[in-house]
Design goal:
It is found in: Membrane. This is Vitamin H transporter. By secondary structure, this protein is mostly helical. The chain contains six helices and no strands. The chain is elongated and about 80 Å long. The protein starts with a helix and ends with a helix.
């Protein structure tokens, strides 16, 4: 027996266990249902997920909502700007940075590697949160990251660019880990 015959025999013998039977309605009945002004019967509301514990007061719910909105907005904007920075290096490389800085060989890859190594070490540096308050450390590393972004325009050699990208990764990795700690502790 060939594979084709085998498949055909499997499909021929298949019968669904449950069949959906739709009532036969005339065209007028279908139009009547479509243009009906009657409200469908309301079903009890079920919660898709529970945002708050059952016994939480309304003031506490408002406070948690405000914290979530502000912290999540700040974190999302921060990640968006950092992603733009990461992708801008590749755009700058294609748009003339290679010729301006005289990059050759695998130097572009080394710039990316320096940034990634900085992020990895920055994750370890985030352990500073055990010594200092997160409301001090997170803005500090965000400001350091922003300052390094501004300093990056002065890059005139591969070594300078790689060093700045390393320290940018260090600041970004630390801020990333601390932001996740803050989001997880709410």
């Amino acid at each position: 027996m060939s594979d084709e015959e085998n498949l055909r025999s499997i499909n021929d013998n298949y019968e669904p266990k449950t069949q959906i039977i739709f009532p036969k309605l005339s065209f007028k009945e279908k139009l009547g249902l479509f243009f009906s002004k009657e409200e469908p019967p309301k079903q009890p509301k079920t919660e898709f997920f529970w945002w708050h514990p059952p016994n939480q007061s309304s003031k506490e719910k408002k406070l948690v909502f405000k914290l979530d909105v502000f912290i999540l907005t700040y974190t999302c904007l921060s990640y968006y700007v950092k992603y733009l920075d990461q992708s801008n290096i590749s755009h700058a490389y294609v748009s003339g940075m290679k010729e301006d800085l005289g990059l050759h060989g695998a130097q572009y890859n080394w710039i990316g590697n320096c940034f990634t190594i900085g992020i990895g070490i920055g994750g370890l540096l985030s352990l500073l949160i055990t010594r200092f308050s997160p409301n001090i450390i997170l803005p500090t590393f965000e400001i350091i990251w922003g300052t390094l972004c501004l300093v990056l325009y002065k890059a005139n050699s591969f070594k300078y660019l790689a060093a700045v990208r390393f320290f940018q990764g260090l600041a970004e990795g630390t801020a990333w880990a601390i932001a996740h700690l803050i989001l997880g502790s709410l």
